[in-house]
Structure formats: C-alpha cells, structure tokens
C-alpha cells in the first residue's frame, strides 16, 4: 500500500496555482505579527514544497513565498512604526512575551539590518523583529533589502528541504515493506503528538488576555 506516494501524488495533482497561493498565504500570515501564533507557515511551506519536483514549480514557489514573507515583514514594520515604543505595552506583545520583545529590540540596536536578516531563521523572533524594527526607527530603505534577502534565503532552504523530503519519501517507500512503513508512520505520529502536547502546554502556561482580536490586542495593558 503506497501510503506516502499516494499522499504526494494527491498533493501534486492539486491545482498548482491554488497550492502555491495557499502556501504563500500561510507564510504571509505566519510572518505578520498577531497571526504568527496561529498560522503554521513553516509546516505548510515544507508540505507544499514536496510538490516542487520540477524546476519551474520550484522557482515559482520560491518567488511567491519570498514575496509573501517580505510582505508579512513589511506589515509588521508598518505596525511598529505606527505605534512606536508603546507597542511593547500592548496585549499583542504581552501575548508573545515582553522578554522576547526586549531581546529582539536589543539585537536590532546592536546589529541593525543584519538582525533583520538573521532573525528570519529564528521562530517567534522572525515575527517580532519587523515590528521591533519599525519602533526602533530603522529606516525602511535598510529594512526592506534585509527582509527580502532573509526571506529569499529562508524560503530557498525550506523549499529545498521539502522537495528533498518528498523525493526521499518515494524512494524510501519503494524500498520498505508495508509493515515497516506502518511502524515508521506510528513513530513519526508519536513524535509529532508529543511535540504538539508540549507546545500546547507552554502556550497554556503563558498568560493570555481575555479579549481577542488584533484591534484589542493593540490596546495598552493597564
């Protein structure tokens, strides 16, 4: 029973424009402050990348994801510039954690645009950095090239990994029996389940404000 091959073939049979748009949309949401907690952009990118089995598909997905990631960063920068230093006291930043915000702003003060580039590869930090850059007064003409370069390198890395995993899965399946695949699938599911439970516990332990909605999140904490 070709489990992995069936899934990959199903993904590749989906309309390519819709698949690329969905992948780009998840990345855009994950890179936008306020949505990064709920949008599985990185996981969605890896899954979508398993369909990048030809050079045109690879290049199109890379271009779209790079643009979407840069757009999400630009939205975060605009929010930071709009609210300034008082953004730190809003419910939105408290949800992420003021300590993480302080570390991000300190990194920006020390490294400038380089911090924007390297933050792209750090979960959570990459969502906070654009807004922090906006509040810190980093000029957009310096922010944008760093954000674009970081997005291009980050998306290239993840799409390459996803495409390689897709190809490796097909080869692995052809070399393994159905029973071995079932055991492997069970192990993978167990690891993913443990990871999700730990992540949920961490989120539950963090103080979450009662109100919801991005407009309310941007209100200062009393």
Automatic annotation (TrEMBL):
A GO CC term attached to the entry: plasma membrane
Main localization of the protein described in the UniProt heading: membrane
Subcellular location: Cell membrane
The UniProt record lists the keyword Cell membrane: yes
Lineage top rank: taxon: Bacteria
Annotated segments matching region Disordered: 202-222
Record keywords: Cell membrane, Membrane, Transmembrane, Transmembrane helix
Family membership: Belongs to the DedA family.
Protein's name in the database: VTT domain-containing protein
């Amino acid at each position: 029973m070709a489990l992995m091959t069936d899934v990959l073939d199903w993904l590749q049979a989906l309309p390519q424009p819709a698949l690329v748009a969905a992948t780009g949309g998840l990345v855009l949401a994950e890179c936008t402050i306020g949505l990064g907690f709920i949008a599985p952009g990185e996981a969605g990118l890896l899954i979508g990348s398993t369909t990048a089995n030809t050079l045109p598909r690879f290049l199109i997905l890379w271009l779209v994801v790079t643009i979407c990631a840069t757009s999400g960063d630009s939205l975060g920068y605009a929010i930071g510039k709009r609210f300034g230093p008082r953004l730190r006291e809003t419910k939105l930043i408290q949800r992420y954690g003021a300590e993480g915000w302080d570390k991000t702003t300190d990194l920006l003060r020390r490294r400038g645009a380089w911090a924007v580039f390297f933050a792209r590869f750090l979960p959570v930090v990459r969502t906070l950095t654009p807004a922090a850059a906006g509040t810190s007064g980093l000029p957009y003409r310096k922010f944008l090239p760093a954000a674009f370069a970081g997005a291009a390198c980050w998306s290239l890395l993840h799409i390459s990994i996803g495409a390689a995993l897709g190809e490796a899965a097909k080869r692995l399946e052809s070399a393994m029996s159905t029973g071995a695949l079932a055991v492997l699938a069970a192990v993978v599911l167990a690891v993913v389940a443990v990871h999700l439970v730990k992540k949920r516990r961490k989120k539950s332990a963090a103080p979450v404000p009662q109100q919801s909605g991005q407009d309310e999140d941007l209100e200062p904490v009393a």
